[in-house]
Structure formats: structure tokens, C-alpha cells
Amino acid sequence: MNKTFTLCASVLALSLLGACSTSNPDVVSRNEAQRMSQVVDATVLSVRPVTVDGSQSGAGAVTGGVVGAVAGSSVGGRREGQVVGVLGAVAGAVIGNAIERSATREEALEILVQLRNGERRSVVQAKGQENFVAGDPVILVTTGGKTRVSRAPVVSQPAPAH
């Protein structure tokens, strides 16, 4: 029973790794909430699709190793179980690392913009709900060292006083 519980908990933890981190511009982290951000106006020069490589924090390897060790140790007798448990731990660690890297890989955009002062910047962010094309007016929102690109809000001029 204890081995089964450990195995199920490990598989669940491994499956949740993909939800741990995101660069999606439509998701704001708790650290960014209620903080003043710097906003800069810009114009999109070009947009190209890129892939953000997945992370390898070690959590996938550890979880996979535990799953492999538990599964392997239940094979055969005591001696066989120990040997297969070690082999299972190694194989599980390699597989868990690969799963973590694949689960945290993101399709993204590299957005090249030109600021009003003529400087150019490049921002890579996950694909969000907004689509950008060359010539679009955008804003760069920077909070805590992270920058995201958003469509510039339409600013209406106040009616002149009579």
C-alpha cells in the first residue's frame, strides 16, 4: 500500500511539472500584482515564431527516479528487487528529466519593436491571445525585470471645453 501511494504521488507530481512556470503574457504572477510597472510606447517591426526550450530543474529526474526505484524494487525477490530498483531509479531519472524538459517547452514569439526614440528592442514571450503584425502600436510593460508586449490602448482625446 505504501509503495503504491508513493508511486501515485510521484506520478501526480511529475504530471504537474508543466504547470509550474509560464511566460504567457496573459498570466501575471502574484509577485507582479499591485506593483508599479514601467510602460514604454513602441511599434512592431517584425514577429517570428520561436520555441522556448524546456527547463531542467531536476524535479523531473528526482520524481522519475523515485517512481523507477519503487516500481523496480517490487520486482522478484529481495536481491532482484534491489538490483531492478537501482536500474529503475536510473531509467526513471532519465525519463523524468526528458518529460520535464518536454512539458516545460513553450511555443513563443520574438517581437522586434522600435521605441519612439528610435531604439530597437526584442522581446520573447509565449503566444498569448493577442496577434501582432508589423506596424502595430504596442506598449512594453516592464515589472521586476520582466518585459511583456501588449497592444497599445486606444487613447481618446478629451472634448475641448466651450
UniProtKB/TrEMBL annotation:
Predominant localisation class: membrane
Q: Which Pfam families match?
A: Rick_17kDa_Anti
In the bilayer, the protein is annotated as: Lipid-anchor
Give the coiled coil ranges.
none
Give the top-rank taxon of the lineage listed in the UniProt record for this protein. Bacteria
Q: Does the keyword Signal apply?
A: yes
Subcellular location(s): the record lists: Cell outer membrane
RNA-binding among the record's keywords? Answer: no
UniProt keywords (A-Z) are: Lipoprotein, Membrane, Palmitate, Signal
**Record's signal peptide:** 1-24
Entry-linked InterPro entries: Bact_OM_lipoprot/Surf_antigen (IPR051407), Gly_zipper_2TM_dom (IPR008816)
Enumerate the spans annotated as Glycine zipper 2TM domain. Answer: 59-100
Output this protein's name: Glycine zipper 2TM domain-containing protein
- Organism expressing this protein natively: Roseateles flavus
Q: What is the lineage of its organism?
A: Bacteria, Pseudomonadati, Pseudomonadota, Betaproteobacteria, Burkholderiales
